[in-house]
Design a protein that fits this description.
Length: 213
């Protein structure tokens, strides 16, 4: 982590994104991230948000991704040291995508990244969740993402997996879609020796919608 700088990573950034979160080998690196306050949008580590008793985080973390029935989620939960929380307040439309970039740099490491996105009522956001390798060697990524959409929220979730071709990538995304909310998912997998992506989407009220590509 200490050998990386923003200038080294510029080529991997999304130009349109104002908010950028960088995690290296599963660990959030504030020095490489750009999470300056935007009106109605909060991005911080899960530990900071939990310590501040932010209800949208404390009430939902670990509630969608069921570790009791999924061994990979259980493994992620057991080894989770840190994670990312993204909160979009009600009636807020994010003007640019939120880019969460997970970088792998070390051989033989198992990273267990965690992310929780809460989209408040009548809000909208595009989340770009990207996995990239800065090494050609073998390693393991075991990721868990939880997404909660309140009433009439809109979330576009673009997932791009570009791991090393020697790597193993396992990921679980759990989504809860409330009344008249709409969740759109696009997943593109280009890397990894073995790649598995499980989605669990719950439409919990009338007029809830989702599309998966």
């Amino acid at each position: 982590v200490t050998d990386l700088s923003t200038s080294h990573l510029t080529q991997y950034f999304v130009d349109e994104s104002i908010i950028r979160v960088v995690c290296v080998d599963g660990q959030y690196v504030p020095g490489l991230s750009s999470v300056s306050a935007q009106h109605g949008i909060v991005v911080d580590s899960l530990s900071n948000l939990a310590a501040a008793d932010v209800s949208s985080i404390t009430q939902h973390l670990g509630q969608l991704a069921k570790h009791q029935s999924n061994p990979f989620v259980a493994l992620n939960t057991a080894f989770m040291q840190e994670g990312i929380g993204i909160i979009i307040s009600k009636n807020i439309a994010a003007s640019a995508p939120v880019h969460v970039l997970f970088l792998a740099t070390q051989q033989g490491v198992m990273a267990c990244p965690r992310c929780l996105l809460f989209a408040g009522a009548n809000s909208s956001v595009t989340l770009i969740e990207e996995y990239r390798a800065l090494t050609d060697c073998a390693y393991t990524t075991n990721a868990v993402v939880e997404v909660i959409l309140a009433g009439s929220a809109n979330v576009n979730h673009i997932r791009l997996q570009r791991e090393s071709h020697e790597a193993f990538h396992v990921a679980n995304t759990s989504v809860q879609v409330a009344h008249a909310a709409c969740y759109r998912s696009i997943s593109i997998a280009l890397g990894a020796q073995i790649s598995r992506f499980d989605q669990r989407i719950s439409l919990i009220d009338q007029h809830a919608q989702c599309s998966i590509d």
